[in-house]
Specification:
Blueprint (H helix, E strand, L loop, with lengths): L1 E5 L7 E7 L7 H7 L9 E6 L19 H12 L2 E5 L9 H10 L12 E7 L7 H13 L3 E2 L5 E3 L6 E5 L5 E5 L2 H19 L2 H6 L3 H4 L4
Parallel strand pairs: 2-3, 2-4, 4-5, 5-6, 5-7
Antiparallel strand pairs: 1-3, 8-9
InterPro entries: Flavoprotein-like_sf, FMN_Rdtase-like_dom, NAD(P)H-dep_reductase
Organism: Streptomyces tricolor
Protein name: NAD(P)H-dependent oxidoreductase
Length: 219
Amino acid sequence: MRRFGTAQQGASQLRILAISGSLRQDSFNTRLLRALPPLAPEGMEIEFFDGLGEVPLYNQDLDVADCPEPVRRLRTAIAEADGLIIASPEYNGSIPGVLKNAIDWASRPMATSALLGKCVVTMVATPGRGLGRNALTDLGRVLHGCHAFVISGPWVHLSEAPAKMEDAEGEDGEATTVLTDPMTRRLVDIQLTSLQQAVKEEAGRHAVVPLLPFIQPRR
């Protein structure tokens, strides 16, 4: 897990895991995630999960106590995070298979799912104008089916992404990205502030309370 950056230090840090739905090295969605730490509210730390391409295709025969290491790493990273940010491209009118596969692994078994009650912000970056809405809709629907708590809009839908982002060098010397579009920066602020509030108020946990008697074993 590679850390993109840290927001201003506060009394209590929220650890937010960022996941890109694209494996492409120069992905617009990965670059969008790299641009978030400087825009995060005080007390929020953003880390990036970089092992999505190592997660095997879901196979229930492999979903045992000794499941593949990349799967354990994914589940642990999600479970230990206070919240998630998922940025995804749109492939053929929906979300990429690699992202859906990761969600399938993370959501099982339901009673101990890493996604159960997890607060999530969804975003999309696209080089064109017309794509992205279907990916946002489908991603929200899939996460809702996994009983995650998805922050509602206004969503960060970064169209014409190449014209609204610039590559830069961070303080640590690593490549980073700067969002140059004022409206997108404003939407990022709204979404990350809403995520912070939802986590602190345990909105995800409260949302799944009615479900717990049906999925957790009786004592």
